[in-house]
Amino acid sequence: MIIFLLAGLFIYRFLPAPSCTDGKLNQKEEQTDCGGPNCIPCLSEKPDDVIILWSRYFEVRPGVYDVAALIENVNLTLGTRSLPFVFELYDEYGSRITVRRGSTYMLPNKQFLLFSANVETGIRRPVRIYFKLDAFEWEPLEEQILPLIVSRTERSFDTDRPRLIATLTNSALYDITQVDVAVIISDSSNNAIAVGEARLDEVLDSSFAEAAFTWPHPFSGTPDNVQFFVRQRPN
C-alpha cells in the first residue's frame, strides 16, 4: 500500500500543471482552454472568415513599392490585437522577388487598409502580388465608434508631387491617442491608383489634428474618389 501511495505521489508531482493551452477542460474553465477565473473569455460567436477585398502594389520610385490590402472583418464582437500578414511580389517569370512580413490589429465590424511602405525590389519589376494572413487568435473586442470625423481636406493632385491634408476633428471631451489614418485614391472606375497611411499620436479633446499624405510622382490615373479609414489601436 505504501509503495502505491509513493508511486501516486511521484506521478502527481511530475504531472504538468493545468493551463489555458493544455487542450483539457479543467481549472473551472467554461469551455476547453477558455473562460473561468484564469483563462481568456470564450468566444460568443463562431467567427466568420476575414474578407480580403484586394491586394495591390504601387510604385514609389524605380525599385521601391508600397503594398496594400483592403480587409474586412464582418464579425460584430471579435477581432485581434495581433494580426500577422505577408506580402510577396513576383516577376514576369513567376519567381518571387521579395517578401514583406508585418503585424497589425483588426477591429470588429470594420473595413481597414493594411499598408506597408517602401518594399525594395532592386532591378526586378513585379507583375503580381500575393497576400495572406498568417494564423492568429480571435479575441472579444468592442466595436469601435470613434468621435472623429474627417472634417476638411486640402487636395493638390494635379502636380508632380501630389499632396493631401486631412483635418480630423475630435468631438469628444477627452483626448484620443494612437490614431491610424489610411487613405485610398481611386479613379472613376473605383480602381485604386494611390494609397497612404499616417499616424496621429494624439487628437486633443474638442480639437483637431492634420494627417498629411504625399506621393513622389504624378498619379497613374485621374483621381476621382478619396476614401479614408480611421481607427485606434485597442488597449
Note down, in words, how this protein is organized.
The protein has 1 helix and 13 strands. By secondary structure, it is mainly β. It folds into 3 domains: about 1-40, no CATH class; about 50-140, Immunoglobulin-like, CATH 2.60.40.3230; about 150-230, Immunoglobulin-like (Sandwich). Strands 3, 4, 6 and 7 form a 4-stranded antiparallel β-sheet that branches. The chain has a 3-stranded antiparallel β-sheet with strand order 1-2-5, with no helix packed on it. It has a 3-stranded antiparallel β-sheet with strand order 8-9-12, with no helix packed on it. β3 (about 80-90) and β4 form a beta hairpin. The model has no long low-confidence stretch (mean pLDDT about 90).
Helices and strands, with pairings:
Blueprint: H1 2-14, E1 51-61, E2 64-73, E3 78-90, E4 96-106, E5 110-120, E6 128-133, E7 139-140, E8 148-156, E9 163-170, E10 176-186, E11 192-203, E12 208-214, E13 225-232
Antiparallel strand pairs: 1-2, 2-5, 3-4, 3-6, 3-7, 8-9, 9-12, 10-11, 10-13
Please give the oligomerization state of what you see.
single chain
The percentage of residues in β strands lies in over 45%
| Uncertain segments | none
Shape: globular
